[in-house]
RNA sequence: GCCCCUGUAGUUCAACGGAUAGAACAGGAGACUUCUAAUCUCCCGAUAGAGGUUCGAUUCCUCUCGGGGGCACCA
């Protein structure tokens, strides 16, 4: 990477001046007028050594220039002592060549080489709706998966689903009642399950008798002692899971492993019981972890009914995952409301499976909230993932009504999913998103369709070049370097950063900037023309298309050829 | 009450301790006989408040004021 070349040159220059530094800060100036890269090294060294900043900067620059690095056009000192690097025409041309050669691999790296990584995300619960919060987790998880995969890691995608627990009992309780009421279509639609869950929640909170019954059902689900319940349970579980699969398909996500709470439960309970007295303690009939001792919360792992809670199950999950796949790194992605919770899990894990705890990393994303407040499947205030996708798709189809595209349906769906994913991935992952349909989902400006449109446009230009039989060529590069070229070479380092920080939004921001640069280029220049400049402009277009397509792939967004 | 996160144009978001705080939407003015106008080109407009550290603070520290989340048998 060009960045490393510059860093090394700076490092060497500093060593030659008998100075030392371990941290070379190199950044892209916000304004192209300040060059392509900039370092503040002279300012920080001047402070340490008590020397004059500009003198020191001059000496460093001279040392660097002595090396005659072909990628560097000129080096200037500006501002309070910044050293600004301007890359050479030769560098930009060679970069286009490299992009065309690398194709799908352009931007990929090897810094996580073969690191065995298991990454858990989405985690919807059977018997509950797949709502837009799950959409958010899935979008972020899938993007992070692709980013680290692109950085060389071996990635296994995992989905952990709560198929047992009180929430299931609540839904089953309501289903039983509606059966009594004579409803026959109970289990044909998954919405029914969502409604049943909401009904069960309400009853659990307001009706002591119902609460007792639900707890009883919960036990029976665990020990499978009641045939009628077993039947309702199996059917409901199956319908939920099938429904989830349909959504994963639309979202272009595919899991390698599925884990269920029904399988983590027994081990979780066993672990809690086995370690009672050491890691856990008994309190009011429950087995708890005294997180308070280390500044965390105290949490229940096995309740007084003798059933494992989510805590114990999550602990067991780490172990079960490692048995299924011998990972070097385990990433768990959840909403930020589980942040404190997960700290407790990690603390307990540290004491029981220290080697697994070391490998585990919890990443939390913000919460998707509605303008009216927190979304909650408990109260039935939810927007399902599917209804959102369909709603957006309808609007896009309306926009496309005059289009002659053959595969309108599938393109519209790609655009709908792209728009939704973009709106989730455009901001840093930790922050909440207030989801307002009109404001959050845009088809213009900063948006998924903006990127897809730029990509489709490039495709159309390239198609025209093919028809006119004008081949791309980098030999006759234009003399002045345009913004598009000044952005293209940055792609690999953007990917690296996104990978290091598990932050897809760097890719989103960069891709948008890049698409903007291409759109300007497109507006200013006729690309396919009878001119000796055409081959290079076509090469640029091709390089752009490769980059935006790879960028979109990292976001989990498809790049349609036409739209 | 205790702990964690957060506060940037009217709105939704950027900014790896750096240079004139970037975009998009909304608002105003332009650009399609020319490769896709879901586009492009201008204009208008912001760091919650008060201290501190630093050559330099949206970024780090302290306090105040807003918003959110979590704190024992839900997940």
Rg from C-alpha positions?
A: 28 Å
Overall number of structural domains:
3
> How are the strands of the largest sheet arranged?
7-6-5-11-12
Assembly state (oligomeric) = single chain
Keywords:
563 residues, alpha/beta, Gyrase A, domain 2, Rossmann fold, Isoleucyl-tRNA Synthetase, Domain 1, 14 strands, 55% helix, globular, RNA-binding
Structure notes:
- Residues 451-563 form the DALR anticodon binding domain.
- Its EC number is 6.1.1.19.
- Pfam families: Arg_tRNA_synt_N, DALR_1, tRNA-synt_1d.
- There is one protein chain.
- With 563 residues, the chain is α/β, with parallel strands linked by helices.
- It folds into 3 domains: 2-87, Gyrase A, domain 2 (2-Layer Sandwich); 121-369, HUPs (Rossmann fold), CATH 3.40.50; 399-555, Isoleucyl-tRNA Synthetase, Domain 1 (Orthogonal Bundle).
- 55% of the residues lie in helices and 11% in strands.
- It has helices at 2-16, 41-49, 53-66, 89-102, 132-150, 166-180, 190-206, 208-223, 227-250, 261-274, 310-324, 339-352, 354-359, 385-399, 408-425, 437-440, 448-467, 483-488, 491-501, 505-524, 534-555; strands spanning 26-27, 37-39, 72-78, 82-87, 116-120, 154-161, 257-260, 281-283, 286-289, 299-302, 329-335, 360-365, 368-369, 433-434.
- It has a 5-stranded parallel β-sheet, with helices on both faces. A 4-stranded antiparallel β-sheet has the order 1-2-4-3. The chain has a 3-stranded antiparallel β-sheet with strand order 8-9-10.
- Helix 5 packs across helix 19.
- It is globular, with a radius of gyration of 28 Å.
- The model has no long low-confidence stretch (mean pLDDT 92).
- The protein binds one RNA strand of 75 nucleotides through helix 2, helix 6, strand 9, strand 10 and helix 12.
